[in-house]
Amino acid sequence: MYSQGLIGADGTTDEDEAFLQHFQSRIDAEQKIEPNDAMPEGYRRTLIRQISQHAHSEIVGMLPEGNWISRAPTLRRKAALLAKVQDEGGHGLYLYAAAETLGISREEMTEQLLTGAAKYSSIFNYPTPTWADIGAIGWLVDGAAIMNQIPLCRCSFGPYARAMIRICKEESFHQRQGYEIMLTLCSGTPEQKQLAQDSLDRWWWPSLMMFGPHDSDSTHSDQSMAWKIKRFSNDELRQKFIDATVPQAEFLGIKMPDPDLEWSEKRGSYDHGPIDWDEFWRVVKGGGKCSKDRISDRQAAWDNGAWVREAALAYADKVRARQATAAPTPVAAE
Amino acid sequence: MAQEASTTSIVTFLTRLGDDQLVLGHRLSEWCGHAPTLEEDLALANMGLDLIGQARALYTRAGELEGEGRGEDDFAYLRREVDYQNLLLVERPNGDFARTILKQFYFAAFMTPFWQGTSNSSDEALAAIAAKAVKESTYHLRHSAEWVIRLGDGTAESANRMKCAVDDLHAYTDEMFQSDALTKELAGAGVAPEPATIKVQWQASVTEIFDAANLAIPEIAWPQLGGRQGEHTEDMGHLLAELQFMQRAYPGLQW
Ligand SMILES: [Fe+2]
Ligand SMILES: [Fe+2]
Q1: Is any Cβ of chain A less than 8 angstroms from the Cβ of B235?
Q2: pLDDT tens per residue, range A21-76
Q3: CA-CA distances (angstroms) from residue B173 to A100, A102, B151?
């Protein structure tokens, strides 16, 4: 779905001034950096971290919504949800491929996810107790992802930027689909509308946290901005998201769970109440309601799939060996 | 001269066929997010989507023909277990990947020639559904057959798991070829082929792929039948409890 502001990214580089200046001039000229181009180690490391976190988020993000595929209320919704979750898997696949161009394998990245060395967006550590959560996730979580990802379509690293263009198209479809579920609930019975309200209450604050810590507390943003990996600050993106989303909630006729939310004539934006950063850090560090379950589900898929992956490799080896023995020789077989 | 099939019979037949696709599609969707590789996660979801799409088309057509205002969701969600007439094979739990892929292979090896034979059905709507479904089923057959070979001829463990899957599932394959009054009526009217006539092709596919996979075709001592009469395994009730949850918990609402 999306990568949260970098956690623990370390942008240090050892290269000499001339090298760094030349690289920066390419960035400033809006040239795309391609995998075989010379690049500072810090740039490579930062991108590997960001793209792999983003890929992990797509993959772990399949789980909370996957929770409702078997229970979707209609066949149309079932097919749409299955297709959506499949799209997220596809996003993970392009992103792993983009990260692989920087010299890391998918296996290594998977290992980092499973050991906790790599993070994923903490929003996916929240549970989906009702069908309305499928609407709220599409509307808010995919909506927040789009805010973050549209600028990434212009990221200086070519493979990442190109993957994002494709992904953004699908994310905006997901967002509309989620909103449409919310609209259906809000135009249904009072009980359905309450389901929608409760899910908004659950997902609103975590969605705002998806943009990462406030700019004043975000340590690694400056270098990423200079390298044009990032184009807007966490707070700028969060504000855009709030401004776009509040009118949508009004149209649905449900209430944002923030008593301090208010239009500011002066700023031309909505003011909002304080974000509970203690909760954010607790969930980032593994204390979310589903944090353990998400990783143990991924671990189980990995472990239960080991024999399948081994068999596929063994079979491919056998086929290669047979082809080698059967290679055409000038003399007919006896 | 072909005898025309009654509308009721065609409706029952479309529903039965829809049940097969829905139940297997539902089973495939259970893998989503948990498959052995990311590529396979996408492939299993793809096949599930194809099958759910086929079920929707079949149920919708059944509802139109019946003319009592039932739509796809009435068929999918609002019947009793005994009213579902799917093959027992498709409702069996996924088990490990070997079982899932073998189930898919057995079914696709039947459905591919079945859809081929139905694509010139005397019922035009069904013929159109079949013409689309045959392309999808052909892919399911190729994809699952490749895995049967890869696993059967892979490692000692994968070969053993494939063998266990065959031992578990083979007894459910006979049900695909059973004739009853309904299949006879529809075959006589040129609506759909008699399932029994597909057995030769199915056996040829299974023999070819099992040979390549070093798998033996077991004798079936006691064929497992009953799905077509609504006599299901114990797994079906649990499957329906999940599938129907929302419609049962909140009756009559729009979603
Ligand atoms: Fe995504
Ligand atoms: Fe998405």
Answers
A1: no
A2: 999 999 999 999 999 999 999 999 999 999 999 999 999 999 999 999 999 999 99
A3: 43, 49, 20
Complex confidence, ipTM: 0.97
User: Which residue, among A48, A58, A44, A161, has the nearest Cα to A108 in the 3D structure?
Assistant: A48
DSSP state of A156: S
- Residues in B touching A304 (Cβ below 8 Å): 34, 36, 96-97
Q: If contacts are CB pairs under 8 Å, which of residues 72-91 in chain B contact chain A? A: 72-73, 76-77
Mind telling me how many Å the CA of B25 is from chain A's nearest CA? 10
In angstroms, rounded to a whole number, what is the distance separating the alpha carbons of residues B44 and B144? 10
Query: Nearest CB to B155: which of A69, A96, A311?
Result: A311
**Paired strand residues for B180:** none
If you search the block for the tokens 């001829």, which residue do you land on?
A: B153
Instruction: Note whether B255 contacts A304, CB cutoff 8 Å.
Output: no
Cβ–Cβ gap A300/B34 under 8 Å = yes
From the DSSP assignment, how many helices (H) and strands (E) are in chain B?
A: 11, 0
Alpha-carbon span B67 to B73, nearest angstrom: 15
Integer Cα distance of B53 and A52 in angstroms: 33
**How many Å apart are CA A284 and CA A210, to the nearest integer?**
10
What are chain B's domains?
7-249 (1.20.1260.10)
What are the tokens at B188?
């006589």
